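Section 5.1 Outputs to date
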Amino acid sequence: MKNKVKEGLRYLFALLFIFAGTKHFTSTEFFLSIMPPYLPWHLALVYISGVAEIALGVMLLIPKYQHWAAWGLIALLVAVFPANIHMAMYPENYPNMPTMALYIRLPIQGLLILWAAWYRKPKSFPRREESS
């Protein structure tokens, strides 16, 4: 039962990132509007992070690459965390987002990192018995 729940949540987690990554291309203006001013190349970073989210989400669905996807998602979530902190510190720069949402994003980011960490270990596959 535990494995079925973990597998179901893995698919949900992967779809979350595939969807979010796709939004970088369909709602580019929104992602540009939340980019901290201290980061360079806003448009390129929006697209790069979108591609990374899609690729890592797809990789998480493939057992052979699940381990690498989990580590990649952890790295991505850590990399964008400073931007989330910036948004929470300067809510006046993001008038279209409720201030509480900016604060809630911070612990949610930690939960997402823990969720990704759940899939760090490579899946073990049963060994085939060699025939004599």
